[in-house]
């Protein structure tokens, strides 16, 4: 078939083998095993076991190589012939000054070579034209019929090919054609215009003169490889396909006619080479190659005029075509690569060529494209192949054992593996291990780095050896193989299809440079197989198996040769083949055979047999050759150690064979020698001057052969000995030592693992096993006890086996003695069993004797059963004895399990039944007890007592019953504790009750008293929670007891502050340390009262001391501070300074206004533009208590009294309750003293004076505001201030403004603050003159009242009097105004956001209305939310204020008034309303009856 005409059809797959791990351990043995199958295909593939994955040992960073350049269309033989033909025809036209352009036919370049071949096959140009068979030529070129392509092909043939063919078959000199010739041959007319005469040679013209000119056929050998002048490469098609088919004369220069010369000698020298005349010199043409002259009319055909450009005569053209072609081969690339750079280049080339990722390109597509490219003369694809890289220089891909590297255990395993390509050639079964030299490529692996389309051409291995290739990693490698039987057929087909290549290179297939399409070979009867070798797989080629292939992509492979014993005949045939081809040998085959024959004992047995056969043939041939030499007359001889000579000094000058056994040399011609097969080709000297150079004499060679025979036949001798010994043919059994010696001999001589050797090993194994068993029987008692016992049957079998083995063992007598002892013991045991019941002692004695025998006797088993029954019955009897200690349920169950395992008997069955019944009863009561212990509904003590009484008579220890007893005992003790506490002198403490409740809940007993205690504890906790909500702020760091008790360490600022910080951080939680009482003392009411009174006094003394200390500290508002003086520290940990600092009215310490809760000036009545009530500055809420002094919410006394009433109903004592009673008594006592002081005449007068002053300020209100500022009655001077506040707040509420509502307050609050700021210059004072006695009294009362964690109206009245009696504190007022401005800004922002959120909620509600029912429900929710909105806002403000008071937990160094003000805006409103407006508290109070309902 014509390559490229049809799509490539893949050949069948070669055999694939997957050895097991056992088979994989012997590489050459496994290859020999699969050889009968695989050799028929020429190649095979082996997949190692999955776990065999050798590491890649090449140093990637240091691996650098230079690849070969491969032009794909030059690899294929037929394509190369076509390219050579095109090169010749292009040269033919180029010499004559014309350029060649290959025409296109049917959109394809015309195959000029195929056209020429088909024309010749069809009979030639004239025959085809005569028979009009150009259409058949077109059909054979696979052109479609019916398009007149035949005429077109004829035209192209006539213009391009026919002149060249005629020149190749014509003569140098022909006479001038006559007119008659021209008329007869129309081609003469056509070709006259195309150039000089050589185009007309061979047209069949004969000379007219008498002397006939002999036409000599001139042939120009085809070119194998033509170098491109520019690139120096062998690319012919790249040059030709770029040219155009135009046979035009060259126009660079113009040929000039010869001028007439004055000298006659010059005229005589210019003569025509055809007619030998020199006349008509104006028509004489001069050759630019050889300077010969021709008349233009003497040429064939005659030229009408002198041609333009360079012209050469027929002789020059013939000489140019006769130039020998250059041998084809691969050239090396100029760029050096690393593995990484080559891989990047290869992957980029493949992905760009196929336009897809490299791993997605199908192998079938790559294969078809490869064979299309190599068969195309149009496309020129060039790839690079890193082939034949020496592993000795660059490093093998397998780990190699050497002293330079330290290998890991895994690497050592692979470094010594027989499948390591560095190890396989030198294995013991390999022939190459006997060659000392490291033959690169054969003994030393070669490395191959491939890319897509890089190929290895058809070839067989050197010396027809085996080869093995391992693909370390990368994309597959595609292989094609031909078996050795078809090797000559393949060579014949390739020579037949491309004779031009083989004519110039007879050993072309040995150059590894030629491919041929497998389909072409298969079409000519050559069997071809293929395979894709993937990473981690081996491919093996067999002797003389042609193989080729290409790479699918970037990969890394390693290959090496190896030779086994079966290769030796093929190796000898290869040497004869090389001799005929005159090819050099890689090594001397004769030297290899003799070297192995010199040391036969080191050879593998199979190898020794093969070497003996080869040695015998070689000795016979040597005898024949030396005899022929003697007959020639050569009698001189000398010994020569050929192995010491270089190969080039001992090669036959005729056939290039490397000589070893003998060679013929000449004394007169010392530069050469010949093998004895070419004794007539040495020189022409006489035989007397020639002499024989030999390595061994003819007597030494048979000696070597005999040693080989002994080695080869040693196995037969040994096998005969083994056969006689195993089959006892001579009637004598061999001893164990003799058999072992035969086995050792096989191992030492390395005999093959045959069936006979395996029988010998099996026999020795059986003998050893028998001896081991016998030694176990006859050894001491301890040894026999440790050895697994034999049965009586096995003992008899052992005795029979020892008698049947072909080995004489003296231990057989010992076995017979043991058998006699066992039989005697068996008789005694049967007698004892027949006389039951026997005594237990006798049974045990017999049983011990049987155990010492080391043999399992059936009667011993029966004795064992009897002994076990007796032992078990004794154990059951002891466990159930009344006097015995009760065993556990597990012990009883174990006895029952043991009883089930022993042999059955009447007594055993009865005991098992009783034990089973007892266990059933015990387990039932255990389940009941377990149910009582685990059930959710607990049972009363009476039920548990009944269960316990029922189980007292069961003789088994029951864990659940015992746990039930312990629980009942604890329950009874608990009930006693409860009775003792309930019947004591005082109510029980809450801690005691909680402990009893915790214990009672854990008991699995139903206790009636537990429910009562739980109710009492729950009531106490409820009261404590109410009290905590009343007193404690949100997230307060104080406990309720801490707030109710006086602060005994108030005098130490650092102690108080650190203690407060510890509480804030949760580090201090011990209530018992408050009054200096222990937990036991808190249970005594008297101790609590005494400690409380002492704490009051300490608190008062401490606060006085603290006031004196803090008063001595410099004010932060002062212009300068002394560096050495102590300074105040705010709760944030920083020193307060600047305008925003406030001083606590109780402890006199300074704080940042942004870090604490501050009073609100706008708690006063809403200002008016016409009246001046705000000028009563003493009523402004400017009182400030720091968080260290004001620890709680400070509820009103009425609320505390309601809590005390609820406390009296509790049957439980709480430390908080007693502390609350003490606090109430202290508050009432202070209230009485305050009322007495306010009711005194001097103080009453001052209050009256203050009321008159207030009336004066309110004298001019606007009419519409009169109701707002109506003064309260002055009948009760104590309540006067509060009454005014009430009226003021009521006025605010009537105007629609609420102090506590940011929404209502925000619009006018900014103007109020501005009004207050404008009134500051008008404030004057003091407005009252307080006597020192009254001032001191009021200040003392004020201090004691501020220490109380209770809100009292008298406290506020005293504060107003003290304020009126001193100048207004303008600095504090300004600070409060600044803080309130920032609070106002934050409030407005939150108010707007809240309003927007409400509007969005209303819109969302309107969108979600689906029916009338939902609208009604939403309207109800809206009404209810409207009612609760005010309460919700009040609660929100209340919580925000508490949060703000705890801001010190995260102190900030940034005291920006804006930021702090925005934080404080909502957090202090409740504080201001409750502290500055005590008259609001009645609105929030509950009546006494309501408090009782709480």
Attribute tags:
single chain, 1494 residues, alpha+beta, 9-stranded mixed β-sheet, 4-stranded antiparallel β-sheet, 53 helices, disordered N terminus, disordered C terminus
Helix/strand/pairing class, anyone?
alpha+beta
Shape, principal axes of CA atoms: flat
Low-confidence stretches: 1-5, 171-177, 187-268, 781-787, 1067-1072, 1165-1172, 1262-1307, 1419-1494
- Portion in helices: 40-55%
Strand content: 5-15%
**How many strands?**
31
Look at the structure and give the mean pLDDT.
75
Distance between the termini: 114 Å
Can you list the strand order of the major beta sheet?
A: 1-2-17-14-19-12-11-4-9
| Count of separate DSSP helical elements | 53
Largest sheet: 9 strands, mixed
The gyration radius over C-alpha positions equals 63 Å
Structure overview:
Helix content is 50%, strand content 8%. It has 1494 residues and is α+β, with helices and mostly antiparallel strands. The strands form ten sheets. Strands 1-2-17-14-19-12-11-4-9 form a nine-stranded mixed β-sheet. β7 (284-286) and β8 form a beta hairpin. The model is unreliable at 1-5, 171-177, 187-268, 781-787, 1067-1072, 1165-1172, 1262-1307 and 1419-1494 (pLDDT under 50).
Give a quick rundown of the structure.
The chain is of the alpha+beta class and 1494 residues long.
